[in-house]
Structure formats: structure tokens, C-alpha cells
Request: fold
Amino acid sequence: MSSTTNHVGKAPSRVEGPAKVTGAAKYSAEFNVPDLVYGYVVSSPIAKGKILKIHADKVLAIPGVLQVFSHENVPGLAWFDKSYKDDVAPGGSPFRPLHDDEVKFSMQPVALVVADTFELARYAASILDIEYKESTHETDIEAKRDDGHEPGKGKTGYKPPVRRGNANKGLAKAEQHIKQEYIHGAQHHNPMELFGATVHYHPNGKLTIYDKTQGVYNCQQYVTKVFGLSKEQARVVNLYMGGGFGAGLRPQYELFLSVLAALELKRSVRLSLTRQQMFSFGHRPHTLQTVEMGTGPDGALLGLKHSALHETSRFEEYTENVVNWSGMLYKCPDVHLNYQVAALDVYTPLDMRAPGAATGSFALEVAMDEMAYAAGLDPLEFRRRNYAEEDQNENKPFSSKKLREAYDEGARRFGWDKRPMAPRATKEGNMLVGWGVAGGVWDASMQKAAAKATITADGKLTVSSAAGENGTGTYTIMTQIAAETLGLPMEAVTFKLGDTTLPEAPVQGGSWTAASVGSAVKSTCEALGEKLLKLAQKLGDSPLKGAKFEDVEFVNGQIRLRQDHDQAVVLRDVLQTSGEREIEADSSAMPNPLTMQKYSMHSHNVVFVEVKVDEELGTVHVSRVLNVVAAGRILNQKTARSQVLGSIVWGISMALMEETVMDHRFGRYMNHNYAEYHVPVNADIRDIEVVFVEEEDPHVNPLGVKGIGEVGLLGVAAAITNAVYHATGKRVRQLPIYLDKLL
Amino acid sequence: MLQFYLNDQLVRPTLRAGSTLLDYVRYHQHLTGTKIGCREGDCGACTMLVGELQPDGAVRYQSMTSCLTPLGNAHGRHIVTVEGISQPAGLTPVQEAIVAEGGTQCGFCTPGFVMSLTGHCLGGQATDEAGRAAIDGNICRCTGYKSLERATDRLTAQLLERDAAPERLAWLVEQGFVPAYFQQMPAQLAELRAETVADVAARTGGQLTEPNGTETTVASYLLGGGTDLLVQRADDVLAAEVQLLYGHADRCFIRETPDGRISLGAATTVEDLRGSELMQRRFPRLRQHLKLVSSTPIRNMATVAGNFVNASPIGDLTIFFLALDAELTLQDAAGRTRQLPLRELYRGYKQLNRQPDEQLVEISFRPPAAHEVFNFEKVSKRTHLDIASVNSAARLRVADGRIQEAHLSGGGVGPTPLYLRRTSAFLAGKDLNPDTLRAANEVAQQEISPIGDARGTEAYKRLLLRQLLFAHFLEHFPAQFALQELV
Ligand SMILES: Cc1cc2nc3c(=O)[nH]c(=O)nc-3n(C[C@H](O)[C@H](O)[C@H](O)COP(=O)(O)OP(=O)(O)OC[C@H]3O[C@@H](n4cnc5c(N)ncnc54)[C@H](O)[C@@H]3O)c2cc1C
Ligand code: FES
Ligand code: FES
Reply:
């Protein structure tokens, strides 16, 4: 009989879907614990200066207001910076909420009002009078063009740019040559769910902290170090996260403030930020980039220079890999990459979906288009001619790379061969039509992760690991992996996550959850499988006697010999006759240092775009997007597709709408709300399509997966920009492409 | 007393009428299926259905963003949250379609989409377009738009069956779209109405505020749909006394008067205006025009008077009615009324020729006659949930190649919504040809004074106004013009 339990690679619907569509899924600010009080954060209206006085008396006199927390009354907490450093903190000295009288950025939390009801807390916060002394701030990266510096060690995952050969010499040999500057403003993650926390204060002084985070362990270690609590005293839980995109990688200030209030008041506290406050704790940095490249007679890249400068805060040195991709996406002998940051009076930027790559590949891929035109080559053909067979940054072969296949597949489906080279060549009614192409490369990484599995006598399997579910499909794919590994139907499996009482998993980021937690789940279920095999072999005249673990497979609720499927035992019989109520196993998985040394592991994509431009009104419609992705094995077609469809919309948004605009007079973001920080609505999105090319990768990790949450964003904005050029002949080098730029 | 049905329960909140429905449901009823994404009407995560008894005895359900719905506006109605449609027996067809099509990711926008689509199934047309329009006010940041669109389209076939069924609501209940208690609602609301109609005070505020509240009443507000006031001054409104106008029978009507004019109650909502057969007869493209105004839930709430009085320089309805030379009836606290042309309402940026106690009660205008044409244009950065960069309306009478009369308005090009007096006068009596339009643009450019902001530079707005001015003529006289010859 063929298998009915091979779930991996299929397209099952989300296992937690019903909880989400009925509103039963509980997000952090929704746990109804008894005797809750409510906090409301007061944010600084100034960007830099000192708090002179907090006039809390009037507010405290309102019946029902419990406390106004500020630096004036916050108790002594952990002293050293290192206590405030979380797992993914950049270098420097982390911001400590309510620490002293200094204001370091606009919208800095300066006080927390706690009251009996939400409405009262909000009202009290609105009338809290605070005196400030303002000093002059600097918030404009444009004024810091000459003040950048190369960052120090950077945060986890940061690689200082490498150089090879001599780019100047390479460029000197070039026949065609381009050099341009590319700019995009700050962007904010803006997940739908506002950051918030509910801290349940138990009578024994222990806390259960429901926090909006992409990493419960990261938050637990932060809270325990800062407040001097033991791990038992601070359990952190996040069962559902209403979107993160990186915003929840680091512990945010709602966590600090709600725990502070709960400990001080010995009460359960809920705290939720406002949409405005969602613009106060990290963003994709405003970045200025220059790309220079040159080609020889056959269109080969002879030299490439890419430099980037972006903002960071005064207190931390945020880093992301912006320019490195330019050293590996195309073959080029002489490459010079340069990366700098400059400190401003803003909050520290924060990883946002495909950090660095979304930025760097925009510049690189628009430059590639410009270069193709300068060299008189079709932009896709130009990319093919410079295809990188190996990772020249690291001098290593790729563990797998099916980008060429992606080019072929995409070009065929899109009909790329019908594209006229010249701009402004196609019109439809009063619309100019243009086609553009671009792509990207992203890390396929893995982190250490642990899991636990328990199977009970009734054949129900529970697997757990403290991973996160922020929309990516963790519940579902882990259920698929576990069920398939032990040959069970998905309904027999429950996956639990997001709780520090479960085995440790890394923060949910870097597209590594599928690989890391998935591998841990697989190895844990295998460990459980070995135990089950032993029990099966103890059965009277077991057909599996003498079989090794490698000789058997778990399929359709049975353990059977690979060579002879009729030699099988029913799993449930094994459990029931064993007399055990439940059987448990735990295990973990971590990256293999040997393969890491040998191979460069990356996912790739290429995006084809059609735009229609109404030149009379300057409006751009993205009428067609095809995103072809090579990202190893796809665990769930449905959830993976959703990730890439989402990325495409993000790319359209980045190209045409998204930008947080700073009013430098006040050092404050002007459009800090959903009304003015535009993301598309459904009606803005036309035909978008996702294709995964087959990419088997025996090296990357036991599952052969590379992660899918970020790579799909790459190339989208650049392809749109390139298509706009093709439609109109106008080259836009600053995002977003506002209507005015086309007139 | 404030009372309404929340799902299957009759509730009588003692909160103030100006507090929000969302906070009542989440913080006082502890129903957390309804989400909060912005508290400003911009995301749809908080979407609820609001059912109102119709003269024919049926209940009409409309989607609203509960973050901007004053609690008082729930009075006498049926409020439905996601908990109120979910059933232990299994998912509703809407929920089922969303799960099956992968339309939920992080899930935070999902209950909002579920409610919008449930509203569509209760009362919408059985077409894909109508389904998609029903979710125009829901943002999904994750973003599952295409999957949600497939889920929406899936429902269309079922809705055709609905339309064939003898009894719509019974069919919807039978198919599991809504629980059985929905069938009791018409009778229950009718019963409630008997009480609430007598309870006029509840409709006009006053008594809804706690009599011995500890806070002093800081102000008194006239409250329509709340879509402006609750964004601008939620805290003030919460503490204030409010006079509720939304759905007030004396303020909600659209009728033809004997002199051939049309008269609107000031609290007529944008969606009611859009759905009015009378209006559609007089403005054949009305549905298209008003579709561009924000989003379905906001249009279900927003009143015409609210749009005029909030005095935004780009208010869509203001621009629409300026070109129609609408006449307003204002009534002061003592009940004295006076007439004022809409054109004369605006004095300066957000400044009105109106006393604070004066209420707008009625709007009257002469609809376009058979030989006249009307057009409305709006350019914004995104299709929905966006106010205009520039908008413009025109009413034109053209005969024998000559413009007999013209009335043009423009928004986003000055401190107030503008009636383009000089441009209109210039056009009257001129031949309809490219030269005339080019010259009219010259006049218009002198009449406007746009400033650069997030919606575009000054130059861009000037250009847009020119394009929109031309667009009015291109729309109605395509044979006479091509844009190329105008620019
Ligand atoms: C998400 C969102 C999108 C929007 N998009 C658009 C858009 O695309 N186009 C657009 O034009 N507007 C838009 N708006 C603005 C707003 O919805 C409209 O202006 C709406 O018509 C206001 O009506 P309301 O009944 O909700 O006003 P309310 O908030 O109830 O009242 C607004 C003001 O009018 C006063 N008022 C209300 N009724 C009366 C009366 N009868 N007499 C005297 N004063 C009265 C109130 O006291 C208040 O000062 C949007 C708003 C939101 C939140
Ligand atoms: S919370 Fe966003 S529309 Fe209400
Ligand atoms: S599913 Fe996350 S916002 Fe829509």
C-alpha cells in the first residue's frame, strides 16, 4: 500500500486555521487573567534633550490611577549593559526604558501610567504633564554623508564586506561603465498586531508573561537578567503573533514596562502600544548607496564597486549585510564593497524582512539593468552571461543553486522573449507598458534548536519546541514533519510552541525556523521512532525482529520493513501491548560545521514584472508579477506560496508606497499611522504568481530546506523600477516611486 | 438607556455614548476575537457587523470599523462580532473558504475579513466584484490578498444559490453562514425599537452620560458616524456629552421635492447615498464615483454632514456637492433655522460660517437635468482607504457646441474645499473646444493655491488639477477631444 502519511511537500491547510478564523487564537494582549490593570505608555515629543520634571500629582489624584512610572521612581535594576543585551542585539549599549532623564530619540517611552481600566490609563496618559529641555538633534543621514564609519564587530550574522582583486583596475578596462546613487527612506515593519503584553502575576510572585515576540527565550533571558529573576519566575509565552517581519526579534519596551509594573504593583498588567508608538522601536534604515560597474566587449562584468551608508542610533551600532550580495550574485573578478554607518538621534534600526538584502539588491539590480542597457544587452541575457557558478565572496561551491533554471522557467512563463529592448515601445490605450526583471540571493541558515516528542497509548503524538508562529506556518509544517516521520495522520499530531517551558528554539527570524526547528522535530521523532521500534521488537513473534532502525519505515500508522512492506506492525498495537502510558524522546539539531565550511548555502530568486504607467496622471499599476524561487525543498506548497505572495506585495509596497518620512525640524516621523504610512489594499494588487523550481540540496540540512520567508521580497522593487524605466524611459533611483517622479 | 444586542445577548452598557464599541467589546465584554490594528479606521481588523431593522421588517447588516463606532451608535441595533457567527458545529462557509485558500497567515487581520465577508454573504450581490468590494477596507500586512480574493470568489457560487432560495436568511442559517439566533433578530429588534423610539433622549445624547460622573463634562459634540471625530479627538469625545445623529430618522432621508430638487437628511451615510435609486437615476456613474471614497465600512458610517463640517480641503462629498451648488439648512439649539449655500460655509482652513451649536439638518440641490452632465474625479495614492491628492467635480450644460453653464470644484488645491468660481464663470458661454479648455486651465491655475505635502508637491497638484479639469470634458465629450491636443 502506498503511503497516506507522506505530508511533507503537499499543500495541507493550516492546522491552526480554524483558531484564527473564529477569533479563538489568543494573541499577547488578549489573555483574560483575573484582576488586570492596564498600562499606557507616554512617549517623548522631543527627539533629544532632558526630562526636567514629571508632574505626576494631578494624574495620580484621579481615582483608579495606580501609578506613574518614570525614571524618577523606577527602582535600581541591573547595572551593566550586558544584562540588557538580547540574543540579537547589535554592538553598543542597549536602550534602557525609564532609566534616566535623557531623551535619545523622538517617541521614546518616558513614562508608564497604570490604571484600573484601559480608558482611564489612556486618558491619564494624555494629560500627564512633562517638562523637557530640548537640545539640538541630528536626524538626517543626508547631512552625514562624510561622517560614516565602518562598524565594529556588528551583531550576529553580520559579515564585514570582503574585497577581491582591484576594482579600479577592472573598471579601467571596461568598455561600458555606469555609476549611480540609489536611495530609499526608512521603512517600518508595521505588523497588524500592535506590540503588547499581558503579565500574569501569580500569588507566589511568579510571572507568566504573554508577550508579542519572535523569541520567547530571548525575552526570558532579557527579563531574568534585567530584573534579577530566576527562569522559573519568568515564563514567557507567545502562542500566536500577529505578524513580526523582524519587529519582534528583540525584546521591545512593552515587555520591560509591563514586567516592571507587575513586579512593582504585584498585580497582573496589560499593556498595548498604539500604532503611533509602533514607529518608535526600530526600522529598516534610510540608506544611501552607490554602485559602479563596467563591462567588457562580451558583456562580462570586469569591475564592481558597491558602497552603502545608513543610519544607526547614538547608542547602538546596527549592522546588516547590504553590500555583500553584490560580491556573490554575479561573477566578477574585481570587486570593492564598502559599508558604513552614521549615528543619528533616532532609535536603533532593526532587522526588517530580508534585512540588508532587500536594500542592497535593490541598488545592485537596478544598476544591473542600467548596465545592461549601457552594454546594449537584454537585462536577463546580461545576467546569464555573468552567472556565478560559485560563491566568490567565500570561494566555495554552492550547496545547490538552481537560479539558471529559475531564469529559464520564468522567462518562458512570462514570455520574456517577446520583450522589445527599447523603452517606451509598448502602449495599451493611454498606458505605457514596461517589463522588468531583477532577483536576489539570501542566506540559507540554520541555528541550534531542540524539541521533545511524546506519544500516548492512543497513538496521539505531541511534539514541542519553543519556536514562534508569526504567520509563516510553523504549527503546520512541524505537524507535517512529525506526522510523516512517525507515519501518522496529521490529525494525530499536536505541535506546541512559543513557551519557555518547552525545549529551546532560536528566535523566529532569518528564515531559519523551518531548517532549525524542522530538523530538531525530525530528529526527535526519529529518536522516538527508535524507542518504538525496540518496543515493537519485544512483541511476540514480531516481524521486525533483528531489524535496524535504517531497515524500517513508519508509514500509515505502521512500522514496516523497507524491503518487505507486508512485514509490519501497527503502531497503536505496539503502544498498547507495551503497557507504557506514554513514550517520550527529546533531541536537538544544529548546523553541521563541516558542510558549512565546504559549501556556501543560499536561496535565490528572479522576478519578472509588468507595469502600466498612466503618464497623464503619473500613476503606476503593477499589472503582473512572476516570482520564481529556488529555495530547496518546499515543505508546504500552500504556506510557502503565501510567504512569497506576501513578499511580492511587500515589494510592490516598497517600490510604490512605503516610506517613513522624517520631519527633521522635530526629528520625528511625520506619517506614523496607517492612514499615511501606506501599504497596499487588495484593489492595488493585480496578477501575481509564484513558482518554485525544484532544487534538491543534500548538504544544507537533513530536510533539504532553505527557508522561504524572505527571499521572495528580493528583486521585486528593483524589477518594478526597471519595468518603469522600460515603460517610460525614466530611470528612478529613489524609492518609493512617487507619482511626481514620473511627470 | 443605551441598549443593543451584542451577538445573541441584550446588553445595557453604562459607559458613555462617545466611548468606542471596540473598547466595550474587548475590555468590558472580554471578547477578543475582534482585533485592534490602528484605532483609526484604517485597517479593518476591528470590523464588526451592525444590523439595523429596516421598514420592511428585515435586518440590514453593514460592516463598520468598531474602533470608530461610538457606543451610542450601537443603540437599538444588532452588533455582531466574530464570536457571534462562529459555531461549535464547524466553520462557517466564509471561514472554511479562508482556511482552504490559505487566506490566513498571522491571523490578526482574519476576523476582520471574516466579518466583512459575512456581511457580504448576508446582504451583498452574488458577484465576485461585490465580494472583493466588501473587503476593500481590510488591510492584510502578511499579505494574503490573492488568497483572500480566491476565498471570496469561492463564495459567489454559493450566493447564487442563496438568491434562488425562497427565504434568504433561513437559507443562510441552514448553510451555516450565521447561527440560528439571527432568525430571531428582526423580532427582537422590533421589540427593542418599541422601547428605543420612546427613548428619544438616548438618540440625542444627554442622558447617556452618567448623571453623577466624577469627570466634568468638558464639551458637547454633535456626532455623526464618528469617523472624523473619533480619529481627531477620541479622548475629548469620551469625556463629553454627545448628541447622536447617526441613523436618526429625521436626519436620514433622500427624497425629491416638488420643485424637482433633491433633499438629503444631514446624517445620510455615503453608502446610503451611493445605494439610493433616486441618486443613481440622476447620477448614472454614482456608484463608481463614490466607490473611491475610503472603504466600505467607513462609507457605512460616514455621514454627509460630517464630511462638510470636518472641513477637510479634500473632503470628497464636499467637492461633489460644491459643484452641485448645494444649499444647507442649519438649525441652532433653540430650533431656529437658516439657509446657507455650501459655497459659503468655508471661511478659511478648517473654519466655518457656523455657530458651534448649529446643526446641519438638511442638504438640498438641483440634480443634473437631462441636458446636463456631472462628473467626479479623484486621484489618490492607493485605491481605497486614502484621501485624495486632488479631487474635482463638474456640472456642465452644453448645447450646440457651446458651454451654457459650468460649475467646477477642486479639493486639495487650497486651504478649503474650493468652488472654482472664476473658472466656472470663464467657461460659461464659451465654445467647447481645446482652446477654451486650455484657457480655462490658465484661469484655474490662478484660482488655486496648493501646497506641497505628503500627497504631492505643489507642482504635481497643479498638474493633477489640470488633468482632472480636462478629464471632466474627456469623460463626457470624448468625440470632441483627445488629451494629446489639450496638453
Ligand atoms: C479610514 C478613513 C478614511 C477616510 N476616507 C475618506 C475619503 O476617502 N474621503 C473623504 O472625504 N473623507 C474620508 N474620511 C473622513 C471622514 O470619514 C468623512 O469626512 C466623513 O464623512 C465624516 O462623517 P462622520 O459622520 O463620520 O463625521 P463625525 O466624525 O461624526 O463628525 C465630523 C464633524 O462633523 C460634525 N458633525 C457631524 N454631523 C453634524 C451635523 N449634522 N451638523 C453639524 N455638525 C455635524 C461633528 O461634530 C464633527 O465636528 C475618512 C476617514 C477615515 C477614518
Ligand atoms: S483598529 Fe484599525 S480600523 Fe479599527
Ligand atoms: S494574516 Fe497577518 S495581517 Fe493578514
